[in-house]
Amino acid sequence: MNVPFVGRCRTDLWVVHEKKRVQVRELAECYRPGRARYYARFARYAKRVRVWIEDVGHVSLMLIWKAKGVDWECLALVSTVKEGVQGVLGIWASRWSLEVSHRLYEQAFGLAKCQCRRFAAQLKHADLVVTAFLEVRRERVRSPHLGWRPAQEVVAARCRNPVLTGVRLLVA
After folding, report:
1. Which of 68, 76, 77, 114 could disulfide-pair with 125, CB 3.0 to 4.6 Å?
2. Which of 88, 4, 84, 17 is CA-nearest to residue 54?
3. Which candidate, 31, 29, 26, places its Cα nearest to that of 13?
């Protein structure tokens, strides 16, 4: 399929590079930070290599090196995106920020606790989670001295005792 894709791959994956079958970790050793280009915007060294993967075909393999203490840590990405190295790194960085915000929704606002089976109910639950997040952010703007958890408690207390104004309740 001709769909742009960026994803992480394992370093024990076998690929074909320059007519030789090698594992990604062996290829990464050939392009350590001294032989890869440094991208200051991402604080990473990266090298893009064209490889062939069985059952997939030709793809770009991005070998990304990040400083970890006195050594380097390698991350391997597979990409079919036509953009340059910085474009692929930008896509991956934005994906990671989405993961972080999703984790916040899951852990702090109960997105993962939805037990509804119907899709419409799941959508409504997700909408409530996002609304709760926005309310907490609004409270933190109003009271910058509040931390995240205290702001959640203030919003929760306000929601437990809602004041309805201008609404007529009809009782049957």
Report:
1. 114
2. 17
3. 26
pLDDT in tens, 75-115: 999 998 888 899 888 888 888 778 887 787 887 777 888 88
CB contact set of 86 (below 8 Å; sequence gap of 6+):
39, 41, 42
The C-alpha atoms of residue 68 and residue 104 are separated, in whole angstroms, by: 25
Longest Cα pair distance anywhere in the chain, in angstroms?
78
Give the whole-angstrom CA distance, residue 17 versus residue 79.
15
CA 140 centroid distance within chain: 24
Residue reference for tokens 């320059």: 18
Q: Which residues are CB-neighbours of 45 under 8 A, at least 6 positions away?
A: 33, 36, 37, 38, 39, 64, 65, 72
- For CA atoms 137, 143, 148, 153, give the dihedral sign: negative
**Residues contacting 125, CB < 8 A, separation 6+:** 111, 114, 116
